[in-house]
């Protein structure tokens, strides 16, 4: 009788664990929620490293939710250039020519300033689950942080990487490391979170590196030098009137 | 030397005053090239070309933005001096809660289109003369005053007055007008009007821009002379421009961009014929461009002009490479393909043609 009760209890525990086990989609949703803020002002840098040295772009960005952002480049070469995202449109502003270019459709897939991110990535329209199917493939520790291992497989050809493996921190629900792969499984790029900062109770990656595994000495580093959340932004900051 | 005498005192004052300007940034830009070319048999040339600029921008003021840009062009494009000095930009932009203004020598851009843009009713007449052997095509500025009235997040009204290049006792050679920009659904609509004082003509235009699998734009303009018969002059000046643009990501590191623009003048000539020494304008011209960009900062491109009526063209392959911070290697070649009396000729009777090669650097610091 005691043995039967023991077996029954054990089975109930396993069933409960299966019912309440987190799914891969839930992990992705929780992770993406951590990356969306009501309002934010970020000052940062992007450093492109290759065999010829380093090239740095600096910027200041203003965001409101997922749909609106204004990014202004502040480094000398690109000073004054702005990228305004409104819903599913991007406006590029070039102060030297006083010209504003409106991007829609395929043009949104263009890479931003030679980075790995496209303008479409900035629209917030497409989440990970729109472009990838996701499976949970176990757990692993990254730099002493226990992480879920997610495998992302592309649903369409309109993504730069057909496959990604993502390590998501089990406690904080932010990615710690991402491997970006070709369809054949060949490792193309490796992204890693080097530093986190805590702002208003949120853990935010403040330093990322992206290493190109096919090129020697080629990497991109992203730095958030300053971040402010919950700031009241001017009412008309996300309008084409701000492109001046 | 006359151009130097005009600008030198101003330049010296500006440079001496630099240490006093705490809320400003100073940038230097140079584009330096060597060029060789062949106009016709046994007729080769070589030249150095350079543009150097010092740009002083006001900063840290959310409501006032000012810029002074001093430039030197070598050789002098007018051919009178070895160096041509210019104040390329000198303007102030300022804004109040419901209005924004610009005054001074400033750039501005109306309409849509990289090369062919019928909405550019002020500078658009020289589209066929655009030098495609450069990374940026539009660098026009003039003395203007504009007022900008926002109507919403995507809409605005803008009025403009453009003073003549030289002081005149006739106010009639001033230009003035305005435009409205708004959206109809997902399509951008821009319509405007300029009174062209020097030509004594009214120039309305309309521009549409949208996306239907490809990004597209369409513009039209025509000149309506004051006091003269409408039909002849409007027909002669009617210009329609259109363009399509798209891109595709290639692999994980590359982007292929393709663009095609067209300029149509319906009442110009649609049959090719021997023009003698006169240059003729045909009813249609095309400007295609294909470019491949690597995320590493290198881009390869092929662009040009095509004259479908006389089946001539100029093909311009090129590259740009952002090697170091603020430093770019740039190179272009131009090949003219056509008979001597065609729009683009390998051995032109007059004007540019043949083959040319241009290579150099641009640097910003």
Topology:
The complex is a heterodimer of chains A (244) and B (365).
Chain A: H1 2-20, H2 24-33, E1 39-50, E2 53-64, E3 68-73, E4 82-86, E5 89-94, E6 99-103, H3 119-123, H4 128-131, E7 132-142, E8 145-154, E9 163-169, E10 175-181, E11 187-199, E12 202-212, E13 219-229
Antiparallel strand pairs in A: 1-2, 1-13, 2-3, 3-4, 4-5, 5-6, 7-8, 8-9, 9-10, 10-11, 11-12, 12-13
Chain B: H1 2-17, E1 24-40, E2 43-58, E3 64-74, E4 84-96, E5 99-107, E6 141-150, E7 156-162, E8 175-184, E9 187-196, E10 201-212, E11 214-221, E12 224-225, H2 230-237, E13 239-250, E14 254-264, E15 284-294, E16 298-307, E17 312-324, E18 327-337, E19 355-364
Antiparallel strand pairs in B: 1-2, 1-19, 2-3, 3-4, 4-5, 5-6, 6-7, 7-8, 8-9, 9-10, 10-11, 10-12, 11-13, 13-14, 14-15, 15-16, 16-17, 17-18, 18-19
Key structural traits:
heterodimer; A: 244 residues; alpha+beta; 13-stranded antiparallel sheet; globular; B: 365 residues; mainly beta; 18-stranded antiparallel β-barrel
Number of strands of chain A: 13
Strand and helix order of chain B: HEEEEEEEEEEEEHEEEEEEE
Helix count, DSSP H or I runs of 4 or more residues of chain B: 2
Share in helix of chain A: 10-25%
Q: Kindly provide the radius of gyration of chain B, computed on alpha-carbon positions and rounded to a whole number of angstroms.
A: 22 Å
Structure classification of chain A: alpha+beta
Question: Can you give a write-up of this model?
Answer:
The complex is a heterodimer of chains A (244) and B (365). Chain A is α+β, with helices and mostly antiparallel strands and 244 residues long. Helix content of chain A is 16%, strand content 48%. Chain A has helices at 2-20, 24-33, 119-123, 128-131, and strands at 39-50, 53-64, 68-73, 82-86, 89-94, 99-103, 132-142, 145-154, 163-169, 175-181, 187-199, 202-212, 219-229. A 13-stranded antiparallel beta sheet of chain A has the order 6-5-4-3-2-1-13-12-11-10-9-8-7. In chain A, a hairpin with a 3-residue loop joins strand 2 (53-64) and strand 3 (68-73). The radius of gyration of chain A is 21 Å and the shape is globular. In chain B, strand 6 and strand 7 form a beta hairpin. The longest helix of chain B has 16 residues, at 2-17. Chain B is globular. At the A-B interface, strand 2 and strand 6 of A face strand 5, strand 10, strand 13 and strand 17 of B.
